[in-house]
Amino acid sequence: MDNRDEVREFLTSRRAKISPERAGLPAGSRRRVPGLRRSEVAALADMSVEYYAKLERGHLAGVSPAVLEAVARVLQLDDAERAHLLNLAQAADGSDALSRPRHRRAKGQWKAHRSLQWTLDAITAGPAFVRNGRMDIVATNQLARAFYRDIYATPGNQANLARFQFLDPASRRFYPDWDLFADIAVAILRTEAGRNPYDKELHDLVGELSTRSEEFRTRWGAHNVRRHGTGTKRFHHEVVGEVTLAYEGLELTAEPGLTLTIYAAEPGSASEESLRLLASWAATHEATAGEELRS
Q1: Residue 207, CA distances (Å) to 15, 99, 156, 167 in order
Q2: Rounded distance between C-alpha atoms, residue 20 and residue 276, angstroms
Q3: Over the stretch 1-26, which tens digit does the pLDDT of each residue have?
Q4: DSSP structure string for 209-246
Q5: Of the candidates 154, 198, 225, 267, which lies 20 to 30 Å from 21 by C-alpha distance?
């Protein structure tokens, strides 16, 4: 796969973030551009300037793991960035199964198997849902459907968290820390693009968001990646108001590429009470909807 542009932009952007002081070098004379010079990265990684320049031009095919690790060390890549660099190298080399074309099930063609849906339905104290790397919500429990009612309210969102984030004005209310959520969404998509470079639906989504949202386009150009596993987030729900929830993201062993996310409130907190109210509202709302369908 020819991913030289992606490699070049990623390495250039990471190099620009490392100051001479952070790398243990003297600041020296005034610099025209931020970050380390190519020659400094090459010296710290114990390679020739010509060889590092070749890497930064995007030529990662055939590069040894030791060289990649040296570059990652000098550029002070975190775990997510290091994994992204390895994924880019594997895609360029074509030697890894993840980098070769493979069938990617479309969201509409996938349905949660019974035991997974039973598991989701058994989680009643907090929203729980399954998403893919494109940020499509593909399965939920009842509370998650109520929690994300803004996303489902607009068919154009297509139950996709990134579309909702950047194209639906309702996201500005739902996410009080909108900029933080926007950064996270783009970093997740950028990570997935490195992991699955042949995913056409992902390419289409990125193209759509880049065309329609300057906020997305700017963040996409930053080439930031992340592992989104645990943390705390604030939301403002239309029905119950502001809630602060912890989350855990779990990779599904039986369904590679899918992540189960579970939100939970601190025991005894106002947010826990808000989730109870939302669960009651959701049960009543679904029961009413069911009666209307039967009548």
Answers
A1: 26, 21, 16, 13
A2: 52
A3: 578 999 999 999 999 999 999 999 88
A4: HHHH-HHHHHHHTTT------EEEEEEEETTTEEEEEE
A5: 225
